[in-house]
Amino acid sequence: MSILIRKVQLNGEVRDILVEGSLIKEINADLQMAAEIIIDGSGKAALPSFFNGHTHAAMVLLRGYADDLSLSEWLNNKIWPTEARLTEEDVYWGTRLACLEMIKSGTTFFNDMYWHFHGVARAVEDSGIRAAPSAVFIDLYDKSKAAEQIALNRRLFEESKRYSNRVLFALGPHAIYTVSKESLQWARDFAAENDVFIHLHLSETEKEVEDCIRQHGKRPVEYLHDIGFLGPQVIAAHAIWLEDREIELLEEHDVKLVYNPTSNMKLASGVFPYTKITDREIAAVLGTDGCASNNNLDMLEEMKFAALLQKMNSNNPTVLSAHDVFQLATAAPARVFNINSGSIEEGKVADLILVDLSDINLVPNHQLIPNIVYSGNGGCVDTTICDGKILMQNKRVEGEEEVLERAREVAFALTAS
Amino acid sequence: MSILIRKVQLNGEVRDILVEGSLIKEINADLQMAAEIIIDGSGKAALPSFFNGHTHAAMVLLRGYADDLSLSEWLNNKIWPTEARLTEEDVYWGTRLACLEMIKSGTTFFNDMYWHFHGVARAVEDSGIRAAPSAVFIDLYDKSKAAEQIALNRRLFEESKRYSNRVLFALGPHAIYTVSKESLQWARDFAAENDVFIHLHLSETEKEVEDCIRQHGKRPVEYLHDIGFLGPQVIAAHAIWLEDREIELLEEHDVKLVYNPTSNMKLASGVFPYTKITDREIAAVLGTDGCASNNNLDMLEEMKFAALLQKMNSNNPTVLSAHDVFQLATAAPARVFNINSGSIEEGKVADLILVDLSDINLVPNHQLIPNIVYSGNGGCVDTTICDGKILMQNKRVEGEEEVLERAREVAFALTAS
């Protein structure tokens, strides 16, 4: 398939963009050529689509179900009992809804950790976007549970080969307080052998650090270092409560970190040490976390929270500019997840969006990136293209009504019982 | 005019709402009656429209023009030189654009402080919403400037009587560091005699407090108390750097406060002491501040920032619930500004919105208020009614294209020079 996007704003200039197959074939001021699909880009700007670095996509089913609660009440009385009832079909429709929301708000990749791996992976396939799904791996330090989980993940890894290259199998050891040392070490070895990512929660709350010190006599990153877990395959979400020595270890092992500002604020977890992280050579990306603690998957909103939280926290309005935070959701995660997109250039994979410059939040348009980061939201996105295929045009996604209807049914059935 | 909204969700039940003239005449399960306009409310929920407690509406012209700068560079090199070139016509179109953005995001009242009073007031009249515009009153401790400003405000007050009751004249003494004691005392007397509000900035930055202590030997609220300025007409924006004794004085004098979380985070000003304020009988409302420091006028986004900032700052996820923050933008400001709306009840003024329950951010809809506060944004609003008149239906505002076009022209001419 070929797509010609005519007369679109790209980096402040009017350009034609030709997409052939999955790639951006040519960018020029005026491409006089035929294409199967022509998109009128006038009044629109082209941008790379967004990467969501950490989420639990199907939790969108629980959006708005349990807010303003303490962490223990939220988890023990609301989230966990409901999640225990989830079927693979529920997760499929929940993830379809999440993918629809992501497509509508310009996101074409998410790094996921959730139950019912195949529910997630099938939804990603059917939605047309990309993801690195991982099954939640929890053994609670129980050897038989660990063996089950290892067997399950070996099987899922093999089975995941049936999916397209838009689905990147990853391991999802939940956190150090739910997964045994031996299982973490197994994950390290399996990831190295099979070249897959390891996605875990790390130092999200102060309590996690205190418990680790009590149990292991050291802080979480030191513990993970000492058991040999750290490495370039590790994608650690939250990474809030870090001392300088731990940040050095993360850099030394090329661990990747995910900043989740909205969730961190909503659950009062703490503040990601952005300036300390970026003073070093540590890759950081941005994520929304799940919808039960955000409560949406809008990466433009997340960018605004990300920048403003760091400005406030460092008492410096120049910290984490709009341009820098935009990179945390585009070029930086493209490098981290090794996907040849994240910017609009010839030869790159066509993962891109068109934003509507007549959107009320984008008028006037003195500078596009600050404008969409600080004033825009997902609703500014008009067209979403992933892997060279149009997933949304004129704000319409094929089949969206069915997804809304099925996801609503699943959500109400889940919480009605 | 009469409007019948049929089968709309209201507080979790399906209702018909009859609007006659400017008032909500009747609410019932099934109103079998004729009306000049029938709105199909199915798939929608009715909510009170929003009040923006502090803004500089026409600054939307400078949205995205100067971000990520230090306060002094932002003001001295970018904002003030540009504002010095503003004409009344510029302010008119800037305010029209701001009103359009507010109507689209469900806001029907704003408390404003800006240059060219009549530019603001005419735009409010023509847009159909409500506002309390005030002319920026700055005398820089200069007696002849003070006399000019006083004469100007006396004249504007008289001239403002030509507008409808949707325009509430207010005084706008900018702040204690830009307005002399004598002018503040004049404002107090004029406000009391003429029953108008006094809108000022108060204790927005730590520097303002330090300068006040250096100049007057006391903190800002103590200074305002000692010169007899404080009273129930005073609406103080920001109110961040307050000691307990100052909070007592604010309560004693029934001063109203405006919390501006997004601007406060973006400019790294500090955190509004919400829990200390609401431990006392002090009225607090929510505002966006101007678009040069926000950068939009979306009160739903502001509610999310408001709640999450307080949760983070107090290390307690139960602080400032979605329901409480919703009140800060509806019922609380309706009381403060003495407008008989802010909730949907028979006999109230019809300032209300319909939100689209099929908006991707509102699916599923376990609880409407948490859903729109934490997941929604202004784009969820389908219909906006102010004073019994439909300003937006099906997301369309009459004449919006002209407003976008004219405001774009003004914005580019302003910043091109």
- CATH fold category name of the largest domain in chain A: TIM Barrel
CATH class of the largest domain in chain A: Alpha Beta
Structural class of chain A, please?
Answer: alpha/beta
Radius of gyration of chain A: 21 Å
What percentage of residues of chain A falls in helices of 4 or more residues?
25-40%
CATH architecture annotation of the largest domain in chain A? Alpha-Beta Barrel
Largest sheet of chain A: 8 strands, parallel
Give me a quick take on this structure.
Two copies of one chain form a homodimer. With 417 residues, chain A is an alpha/beta fold.
Question: Can you offer a commentary on this structure?
Answer:
Two copies of one chain form a homodimer. With 417 residues, chain A is an alpha/beta fold. Helices cover 39% and strands 22% of the residues of chain A. In chain A, the strands form three sheets. In chain A, strands 6-7-8-9-10-11-12-13 form an eight-stranded parallel beta sheet. In chain A, helix 3 links the parallel strand 7 (107-114) and strand 8 (130-137). The longest helix of chain A is centred in the first third of the chain and has 17 residues, at 88-104. The first copy, chain A, is globular. The mean pLDDT of chain A is 97.
